[in-house]
Amino acid sequence: xxxxxxxxxxxxxxxxxxxxxxxxxxxxxxxxxxxxxxxxxxxxxxxxxxxxxxxxxxxxxxxxxxxxxxxxxxxxxxxxx
Length: 81
What we know:
The chain is of the alpha+beta class. The chain has a single domain (1-75), classed as 2-Layer Sandwich (Ribosomal Protein S5, domain 2). It has three helices and three strands.
């Protein structure tokens, strides 16, 4: 999973969910996007406002268990201001 972040100067945060090219089918891509959207919804207050976030997921991220995905997601989130 990779995150790209940049300031947008707006009073809200915006998100882009991108599965990478390791996803072979639309089903895998859509599943990864659903998982990422749910994680963002669940932890939205932890995101600083005024930024654009692009979350790039590999196919292995969706194959992790639910608990492992959340731990991994939160560990990456802690790296931001």
